[in-house]
C-alpha cells in the first residue's frame, strides 16, 4: 500500500460522504475519480464498503427520531406502518441486487463512458422534473402509503446502473408520484439505511476471502472520511433543497459527465 493509495482513499471517502445523499450518484463519482486517480480496489469493494460511514452519518443525525419509532413499534400503528414502508421499499433492491450483483460489479462498474452518459441524462431528467408544476399530496416521509413506498423502491433499483444515483432515482420517482421535495429527500435518507447496510453486508460476504489487511486499512480511511462528510450533508441538505430545489445538482451532473467524457476521449 503506497502513500498515493492512502491519499486516494482519503479523497474518495470525502467524495462518498458528500455525494451519497444528493442526487448526483456517489458510485458514479467514485468510479470516475478512481479511474483517473489510478485507484483500484479489490473486487471494487472499497466503493461499496465505505458506504457504512454514510449509514452511520444518517444514524448520528436521526438517531433520536428512529429510536422513538423503534420503541413505539409494539403499540403504535403509525410506527409499524413506517417500518413496513421502508422494508417494502427495500425489498426490490434485495432481489434485483442479488441477481445482478456480479454483472454490476464486473461490467457496469468497469464502463466509465456509461457512467458519464447516465450522469448527463440524469441531470436533464432532474432539470425537467424540478420545473414541473407538480402538486404534492404527501408531505410526511414517515406517513407514505405502502403502495407509494413500494413504487419508490422499484425506482431505487435504477441506481444499480452507476451514474443514475440512488437518491436521485428515489427522489424523482417520489416527486412524480405526488410527494414534496423535502419529504422525498428525507424518505431517501431512511431508505438508504437498509439499502446500504444490505449492500455492505452482501459485498463483504462475497469478497471476504479476497480482502487483505491493506484493503481493510484503506476501507477504514474511506469509512471515517465518508462519515464526517456525510453527516455534514445530511444536516444541511433538506434546507438547501427546500430553498433551491434540485437544479444545482442537475447542472453539477451534466458538468461532471461532460468533463468525464472529454477526459476519457483525451486520455483514455
UniProtKB/TrEMBL annotation:
<keyword id="KW-0812">Transmembrane</keyword>
<feature type="transmembrane region" description="Helical">
    <location>
        <begin position="217"/>
        <end position="238"/>
    </location>
</feature>
<feature type="transmembrane region" description="Helical">
    <location>
        <begin position="184"/>
        <end position="205"/>
    </location>
</feature>
<dbReference type="GO" id="GO:0009252">
    <property type="term" value="P:peptidoglycan biosynthetic process"/>
</dbReference>
<feature type="transmembrane region" description="Helical">
    <location>
        <begin position="48"/>
        <end position="70"/>
    </location>
</feature>
<dbReference type="GO" id="GO:0071555">
    <property type="term" value="P:cell wall organization"/>
</dbReference>
<protein>
    <recommendedName>
        <fullName>Undecaprenyl-diphosphatase</fullName>
        <ecNumber>3.6.1.27</ecNumber>
    </recommendedName>
</protein>
<comment type="function">
    <text>Catalyzes the dephosphorylation of undecaprenyl diphosphate (UPP). Confers resistance to bacitracin.</text>
</comment>
<feature type="transmembrane region" description="Helical">
    <location>
        <begin position="82"/>
        <end position="100"/>
    </location>
</feature>
<dbReference type="Pfam" id="PF02673">
    <property type="entry name" value="BacA"/>
</dbReference>
<keyword id="KW-0378">Hydrolase</keyword>
<dbReference type="GO" id="GO:0005886">
    <property type="term" value="C:plasma membrane"/>
</dbReference>
<dbReference type="InterPro" id="IPR003824">
    <property type="entry name" value="UppP"/>
</dbReference>
<keyword id="KW-0573">Peptidoglycan synthesis</keyword>
<keyword id="KW-0046">Antibiotic resistance</keyword>
<dbReference type="GO" id="GO:0046677">
    <property type="term" value="P:response to antibiotic"/>
</dbReference>
<keyword id="KW-1003">Cell membrane</keyword>
<keyword id="KW-0472">Membrane</keyword>
<dbReference type="GO" id="GO:0050380">
    <property type="term" value="F:undecaprenyl-diphosphatase activity"/>
</dbReference>
<comment type="similarity">
    <text>Belongs to the UppP family.</text>
</comment>
<feature type="transmembrane region" description="Helical">
    <location>
        <begin position="112"/>
        <end position="132"/>
    </location>
</feature>
<keyword id="KW-0133">Cell shape</keyword>
<keyword id="KW-0961">Cell wall biogenesis/degradation</keyword>
<feature type="transmembrane region" description="Helical">
    <location>
        <begin position="144"/>
        <end position="164"/>
    </location>
</feature>
<dbReference type="GO" id="GO:0008360">
    <property type="term" value="P:regulation of cell shape"/>
</dbReference>
<feature type="transmembrane region" description="Helical">
    <location>
        <begin position="250"/>
        <end position="267"/>
    </location>
</feature>
<keyword id="KW-1133">Transmembrane helix</keyword>
Amino acid at each position: 500500500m503506497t502513500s498515493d493509495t492512502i491519499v486516494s482513499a482519503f479523497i474518495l471517502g470525502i467524495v462518498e460522504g458528500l455525494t451519497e445523499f444528493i442526487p448526483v450518484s456517489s458510485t458514479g463519482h467514485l468510479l470516475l475519480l478512481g479511474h483517473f486517480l489510478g485507484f483500484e480496489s479489490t473486487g471494487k469493494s472499497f466503493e461499496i464498503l465505505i458506504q457504512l460511514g454514510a449509514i452511520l452519518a444518517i444514524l448520528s443525525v436521526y438517531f433520536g427520531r428512529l429510536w422513538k419509532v423503534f420503541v413505539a413499534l409494539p403499540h403504535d400503528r403509525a410506527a409499524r406502518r413506517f417500518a413496513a414502508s421502508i422494508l417494502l421499499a427495500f425489498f426490490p433492491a434485495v432481489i434485483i441486487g442479488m441477481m445482478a450483483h456480479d454483472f454490476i460489479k464486473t461490467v457496469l462498474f468497469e464502463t466509465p463512458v456509461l457512467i458519464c452518459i447516465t450522469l448527463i441524462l440524469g441531470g436533464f431528467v432532474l432539470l425537467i422534473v424540478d420545473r414541473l408544476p407538480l402538486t404534492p399530496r404527501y408531505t410526511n416521509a414517515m406517513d407514505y402509503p405502502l403502495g407509494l413506498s413500494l413504487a419508490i423502491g422499484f425506482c431505487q433499483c435504477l441506481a444499480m446502473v452507476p451514474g443514475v444515483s440512488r437518491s436521485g432515482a428515489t427522489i424523482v420517482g417520489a416527486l412524480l408520484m405526488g410527494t414534496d421535495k423535502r419529504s422525498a429527500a428525507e424518505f431517501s435518507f431512511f431508505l438508504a439505511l437498509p439499502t446500504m447496510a444490505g449492500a455492505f453486508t452482501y459485498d463483504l460476504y462475497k469478497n471476504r476471502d479476497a480482502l487483505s489487511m491493506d484493503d481493510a486499512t484503506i476501507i477504514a480511511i474511506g469509512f471515517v472520511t465518508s462519515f464526517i462528510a456525510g453527516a455534514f450533508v445530511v444536516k444541511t441538505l433538506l434546507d438547501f433543497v427546500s430553498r433551491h430545489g434540485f437544479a444545482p445538482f442537475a447542472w453539477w451532473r451534466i458538468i461532471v459527465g461532460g468533463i468525464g467524457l472529454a477526459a476519457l476521449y483525451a486520455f483514455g
